[in-house]
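tokens incoming
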């Protein structure tokens, strides 16, 4: 009977050691798809310390969560347009409207405000809110705009708290990530 208890204790210990390793391996296997308002599908996989945006090559990803009637969010649009244009070969800007604006109204909003980067409605963001909460603890209740910058290998390089886009700061961050 003693040997049986020891065996169970050893097996239990091994299981406790292996579960965290398995969790890290499977984290990268959880995936979702962002469907932009233009019909583009962006598959995204959760990694232990970031997100893998499939089909984006080795680009820096600026992932912003915004609200359609949020003044700082609106003020950030020209800056994102500039960054997307200036770094078209190295950067992809993806914005997810997090206040629930319906897709058709969001399309009108994007056209009206001259947004020239990828935009998705809340309902077309898949598990992105869950993924971001896992990575950073952020949720839409904590405020927008919320920006996350991902290096070309998908690692979360920087998260910027809710507030207007600090374009010079983000540009310096892009330049440093381009050199890596």
């Amino acid at each position: 009977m003693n040997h049986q208890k020891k065996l169970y204790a050893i097996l239990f210990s091994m299981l406790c050691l292996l579960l965290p390793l398995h969790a890290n391996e499977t984290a990268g296997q959880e995936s979702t798809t962002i469907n932009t308002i233009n019909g583009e599908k962006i598959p995204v996989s959760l990694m232990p310390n970031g997100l893998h945006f499939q089909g984006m090559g080795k680009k820096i990803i600026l992932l912003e969560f915004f609200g359609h009637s949020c003044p700082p969010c609106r003020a950030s649009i020209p800056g994102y347009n500039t960054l997307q244009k200036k770094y078209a070969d190295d950067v992809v800007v993806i914005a997810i409207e997090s206040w629930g604006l319906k897709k058709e109204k969001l399309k009108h909003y994007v056209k009206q405000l001259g947004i020239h980067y990828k935009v998705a409605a809340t309902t077309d963001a898949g598990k992105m809110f869950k993924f971001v909460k896992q990575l950073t603890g952020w949720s839409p209740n904590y405020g927008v705009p919320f920006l996350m910058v991902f290096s070309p290998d998908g690692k979360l390089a920087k998260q910027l708290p809710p507030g207007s886009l600090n374009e010079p700061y983000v540009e310096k961050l892009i330049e440093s990530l381009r050199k890596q």
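note: The chain has five helices and eight strands.
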